[in-house]
Each structure stands twice: as C-alpha cells, then as structure tokens.
C-alpha cells in the first residue's frame, strides 16, 4: 500500500488493547487538532494512556504515522483515478470523469480525518514531499481526463482543462471544512449532489 514501505504496514503491532488502526486514528486526530509539528510522541502516548517510553512499543516514530495517514488519504483516490484513466470499460471520458468525481466524494467521506490532514501538508519533510508528488500526479491525470471530455465535445472548451480540474476537485476537497459524518446527508447523496452541480449547474432544466 505505502510507497517505499513507509505506510500503515510500517506501524508496529500494538500491545493488547491497541491495534494499529486505533493508534493511527488517534494520531491523525491529534495531528489535525494540534498540527503535525505541534504534536509529539509524548502527546500521543498521553492520549493513549501510555508512558512516553511505552509508545515506542506501538509505533516506530511520528513520521511513520504521518506516512501511513497520508497513504490512507491518497491510495483510494489514486486507485479511482487510475481506473478512470485506464478506460477498461470503453466509456467516454465525460462518463469516467463523472464517476471519479462521485467516487472521490465517497472516498473523502470514508477517510475524512486522513484527507483533512493531507490537505494541510506543505512539504516540510520527505514524507510530505512524497505525498505532494502523489497529489500532483493525480491532478495531472484528472486534467488529462477533463481534456478528454473537452475533446469529445462534452465539456466547454473556453476554460483551461487544468483550471476546470482544480475548480472541480477544489469543490470536493472543501468538504473537509464543513462535512461531518452522521449528519443529515450521507455520502452517496452528497456525491450525487456535487456531480449534478458540477456537470449540470444550478439552473432549473427548463431555464437552461
């Protein structure tokens, strides 16, 4: 899952009472609340009710937790985008773009804390730089998919495809600022609403 062996598999098997997933979840919560640089391994140990020395029986270090969190945020989207670009089903670029928009919303909702952390990364370490590089690769593939839809005549050609892609997925990413699981709108409904807004606009059909 992780590139270079720095992902969730690198988190050591925890002592009884704390599995890898639990330790990672709590670490992501702290990173989001206090900032990655402002969170120490001592903070995580305290949050888990462990001694500062005992935390290292659960994880090898803070950077490994960050790598696992960023991989979690990126892996699902990378797979969805790669599948859309591959076009194994012979669908139009426009249809594949719509699909990946819907999937990206559902992936974000399913991994909201990790995606929130990803969007705050600024490239202050090798782990963060690697995550940003993966994001750039995803952005390039998405822009290519937008260009494909423009070439088909399905999307307007007077706006740069890269700008369309940034605006489109910027709207998706903005969910991290306000969406909270357990609210009145579930992921499939939210994905449908965003896709409809993005591809059909706000005007009523009879007004267009």
Please explain how this structure is put together.
The longest helix is centred in the middle third of the chain and has 26 residues, at 126-151. This protein folds into 2 domains: 3-62, Homeodomain-like (Arc Repressor Mutant, subunit A, Orthogonal Bundle); 68-207, Tetracycline Repressor, domain 2. It has 9 helices and no strands. It has helices at 20-34, 41-48, 62-86, 93-110, 112-119, 126-151, 161-173, 175-178, 187-200. It is 63% helix and 0% strand. Helix 4 (93-110) runs antiparallel to helix 9 (187-200). By secondary structure, the chain is mostly helical. It comes from Nocardiopsis mangrovi.
What is the global morphology? elongated
Query: What do we call the CATH homologous superfamily of the largest domain?
Result: Tetracycline Repressor, domain 2
Q: What CATH architecture of the largest domain do you see?
A: Orthogonal Bundle
Number of domains: 2
Unreliable parts? 1-16
Largest sheet: none
CATH class of the largest domain: Mainly Alpha
According to CATH, what is the topology of the largest domain?
Answer: Tetracycline Repressor, domain 2
Task: Offer a concise description of the structure.
With 208 residues, this protein is mainly α. The chain folds into two domains: 3-62, Arc Repressor Mutant, subunit A (Orthogonal Bundle), CATH 1.10.10; 68-207, Tetracycline Repressor, domain 2, CATH 1.10.357.10.
């Amino acid at each position: 899952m992780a590139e270079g062996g720095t992902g969730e598999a690198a988190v050591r098997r925890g002592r009884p009472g704390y599995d890898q997933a639990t330790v990672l979840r709590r670490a992501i919560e702290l990173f989001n609340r206090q900032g990655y640089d402002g969170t120490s391994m001592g903070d995580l140990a305290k949050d888990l009710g462990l001694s500062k020395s005992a935390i290292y029986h659960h994880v090898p270090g803070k950077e490994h937790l960050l790598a696992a969190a960023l991989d979690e945020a990126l892996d699902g989207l990378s797979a969805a985008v790669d599948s859309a670009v591959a076009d194994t089903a012979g669908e139009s670029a426009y249809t594949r773009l719509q699909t990946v928009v819907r999937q990206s919303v559902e992936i974000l909702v399913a991994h909201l804390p990790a995606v929130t952390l990803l969007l705050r990364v600024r490239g202050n370490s090798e782990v963060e730089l690697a995550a940003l590089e993966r994001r750039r690769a995803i952005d390039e593939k998405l822009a290519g998919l937008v260009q494909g839809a423009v070439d088909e005549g399905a999307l307007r050609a007077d706006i740069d495809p890269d700008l369309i892609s940034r605006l489109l997925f910027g709207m998706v990413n903005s969910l991290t600022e306000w969406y909270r699981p357990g609210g009145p709108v579930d992921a499939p409904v939210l994905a449908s609403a965003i896709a409809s807004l993005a591809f059909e606009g706000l005007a009523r059909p009879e007004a267009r």
